What does this fold into?
Amino acid sequence: MAILSLKDVHKSFGITHIIRGVSLDIEQGEKHAIIGPNGAGKSTLYHLISGLYSVTSGTIELKGEEIQNKPPYEISRRGLARSFQVTNIFPRMSVFENVRCALLWSRGFRYSFWHLLGRQGELNDCAMEVLSQIGLLEKASFPAGELAYAQQRALELGITIASGAEVILLDEPVAGMSHSEAENAVQLIRQITEGKTLVMVEHDMNIVFDVADRISVLVYGEVIASDKPAAIRGNQRVQEAYLGEVATHA
Amino acid sequence: MVILQTLVKKFGIWVAYLAVLLLLPQLFDSILAISIYNQMAIAIVFALSYNMLLGQGGMLSFGHAVYFGMGGFLGVHTLLMIENESVYFSVMWVPFIGGLFGLLCALFIGSFSTRKAGTVFAMISLGIGELIAASSLIFVDFFGGEAGISGDRTFGPTFFGVDFAQNIQIYYLAAIWTFIATIFMYLFTQTPAGRMANAVRDNPIRAEFIGYSARRVRFISFCAAGLFAGVAGGLFALNYEFITEENLNAATSGRVLLMAYIGGLGYFIGPIIGAVLLTLMNTLLSTYTDLWLLYLGILFLLTVMFLPRGFAGFIMMHQVAWLRGRLTSLIKPYLITGLPALVFLLGVVTLIELIHTEDETLSIWGLSLTPASVPTWIVLIAITGAAFYGIRRSLPQLREAWHAANKPDGEGN
Ligand SMILES: Nc1ncnc2c1ncn2[C@@H]1O[C@H](COP(=O)(O)OP(=O)(O)OP(=O)(O)O)[C@@H](O)[C@H]1O
Ligand SMILES: [Mg+2]
It folds into this structure.
C-alpha cells in the first residue's frame, strides 16, 4: 500500500484552476522526484499535502488515513515533514533552539510548561546530533537569521528532518547554492533520508536523475508522466513539455 | 570549589536579585521610599507579565491592564471578605487570589482573542479593554463605579505575628511575591511552551509544520501573562487597599507597554529595568514637574528611535567590546559626546519649563530664571544650540571608536 496517496486532487484560487486532478501514489521508502516548469503547481501541491492550503476537491491519504484539509500541525504529528522553497526558519532564535523546537513534539513534550528544557539531556543531545549532521555545530548559538544562505538552507533541512518523520517533502532544497554547496547538500539529503520516504521538487536534472527512483512530471497542474528515471528520460511528451525546454535553456 | 562555582554561576544572579529586593529598605526607609519600592515591585511583576505577551510571544496587547485590574478588584473584594469573616486566611494570599482571577479572565478572553496574532490580536485587546472599562460603570457592585472600591488589610489571621498593617511589612511581602513571580516567569521561558512561544513569535507558519498549533501556543502564553498580571493586581490591592476603573483602562495598559518597551523586549531583564525607571519617573519626577508625562513621551520616542532594543539592549550592545577587552576605549568618546548631550538635554528641559511656567521666576538646577527676560532666552538657546553642535561634531569620532572596539581581533582598517 502506498504511504502517500493523492486521488484526483484539484485546487483553484478563485477562478484560476491551478491543480487539475492530480493522482499520485508514493510507496514506502521511495525516493520520488517531482519536476516541471516554473508555475506548474509543484509548491502548491506541497502546500495541499502538508495542510497549508485546503483542497478544492479530491483526497490525500497518509498511511491510509485521509489528511486533506487537516491543519499542518496534525499532518506533521502523523509523520510528514516538509521544507520550504523560500527559507522558513525561526530567525531570532539560536540555531540550536531552531532544531530543538523541531524535536519537541515528536519527543512527547507537547505544550508542557512543567519540563525544563535545560534538563532534558536526551533531547539536547539529539538536537546537537542533528546539528552535527547538517554541519552547523559551530553555529549552534548563532541567531538563525544571521547565517549565510547555504547555512540557512541546511538549517531548513535540519528543522525538517529533526522530528524523524517517515515522509519528507523537500521543495528545491539546493536552489541558489553554488555547485560545491549543492553537492554537499545532496550528500546530506541522501544520508538523512536513508530508509525514509522522500519526495523532492528539484530543477537540477543531474540531481534528480541521481537521487530519484521514480519521477513525476507536473505540467500546468497535471501529472503527464510518472515513471522510472530511464523511462522519463525517453518519454516524448516529457521531452516536449519540459526536458527539451531545460536542454535549450542550459 | 568547582561545585560552589557552578552554584554561584547558576543561582548567583537570583541570590543577588533577592538580596537587592530585601535590602532596599536599608538604603532608604522613608515613607516615600517604601511607597516607591512597593510600586516598583508591582510594576516589575506587571511589566514582566506583559513581556510574556509582546517580547516572548509576539502579541501586541493594548489591554493588558484588564488582567491586572481584575486581579486587583478581586483582591480588594477578598480583603472585604476577610474583614467580614466570610473567608478566613491571611491577607498575604491576596496576590495569589488575584493571580487566579487574572488567569480565569485570560482563559475566557484568550479563547477567542489569540486566534490570530498581529493587528487582529491588537485590535481585540483594545476592544476588550474598552469594554471592561465601560462595564465598570455598569456592574457597580463589583467595580464600585467611578469611585472604585476600597478595603482594609488589617483583618484576618496574622502570619507569625505579622499583621501587614505597615507599608514596610507589605513591602517585604511584595518583595517575596515579586521574587517568586519573577522566578516562575523565567522558568516558563525555559519550558517547551515558553520556547515555542518564541518560535510562534518568529514564524507562526513554520511552527505549525513542526507539530504545534500557533493558536494554542499563544493561548498558553496569554493565560500565563494573565495569571501574573493578576498577581501584580493583587499586590496593588494589598498595597493601596483600594482600586478604581483607572487601574484597568487603556492608560494603564499603555503604561505597561511603555515599561516593557523602554526596558527592552528582547531580554528577560528588560521589563524590570523599564519598571524601575518608569516608577521613578512617575513618583520622583512628578514631584518636581507636572510635565513629567511629556518627558516620558520624549523618553519613549528617543528609545524607539535610538535604542530599539531598549535599555537592556543598550547594555547588551557592549558585550562584544567587553569580551574583546576594549570597553575602556569607549569611555573617552562616550564622555566627549555625552557631555554636550547632557547639556543639550538640560537646555531643552529648561526651555520647556520656561515656556510652561506662569510664575515670575523659574527655579531650576539651582538657578532662578526670569521668563520675561529676553537675554535669558538668548543665552539658553545659544547654549543649547552649541551643545547640539557639539554632539554633531563629536558623533563621527564616537562611531569610529565604536567600530574599532567591536572589530574582530587582528583585522586591519
Ligand atoms: N495563493 C495563491 N493564490 C493565487 N495563485 C497562486 C497562489 N499560490 C500559487 N498560485 C499560482 O499557482 C501557480 C503555481 O505556483 P507554484 O508556486 O505551485 O509553482 P511551482 O511549480 O512551485 O513553480 P516554481 O518552480 O517557480 O517554484 C502559479 O501560477 C502561481 O501564481
Ligand atoms: Mg515552487
Q: What stands out?
A: The beta strands of chain B are 149-150, 242-243, 362-364, 367-369. The pocket of magnesium ion (ligand 2) is lined by residues A 42-43, 85, 171 (CB under 6 Å). The interface with chain A takes residues 187-188, 190-196, 198-199, 201-203, 205-213, 216-217, 220, 224, 266 of chain B (CB under 8 Å).
